[in-house]
Amino acid sequence: MNTPRQTRLSAHPLDHAAMRRGPRPARAKVERKTVSPAMRQVAGQLGECAMRCTEAYVVRDREALVLESAVFLDLIAEIWAMRGLDRADVYRELDHRMQLSELLLRFNSEDAQAEPGARRRFWRPATTKLP
Q1: Residue 84 and residue 65 in contact, taking contact as beta carbons nearer than 8 Å
Q2: What is the pLDDT of residues 51-71, one digit of tens each?
Q3: From CA 33, how far away is CA 129, in angstroms rounded?
Q4: If pLDDT is split at 50, 70 and 90, which confidence band does 121 have?
Q5: Which residue of 53, 105, 121, 128 pairs with 68 in a disulfide if CB–CB is 3.0 to 4.6 A?
Q6: For the chain, where are the alpha helices, taking DSSP H only?
Q7: How many CB atoms lie within 10 A of CB 68?
Q8: Do the Cβ atoms of 31 and 37 come closer than 8 Å?
């Protein structure tokens, strides 16, 4: 005969933290937006494309990685359009993050060349999120 602990363990073999906490409190009802069939289809295609990109990366197939990455970008742009996002807004955010990365790289490389033999200190921002 199974004890309640054994039953819970067999239902969730990897959820040891939940067993220590005890039963979960009741969740508040969250209103979820319905996802259209078109969105589900594109999201599924995007997931499959991401797996193909990862596979091409792992097997070092540069041509396949380039082609699948282009398909990925087309699919994600389609999702943005379905949600009313403008590509320019996303590209602007990416540009800001790239500028921050370049600035970080420049600060770190200038610091390394400033004093030969001195202890190297890296400059790191607290976050990459921009206002």
Answers
A1: no
A2: 999 999 999 999 999 999 999
A3: 27
A4: low
A5: 53
A6: 4-11, 16-21, 37-58, 62-82, 87-114
A7: 21
A8: no
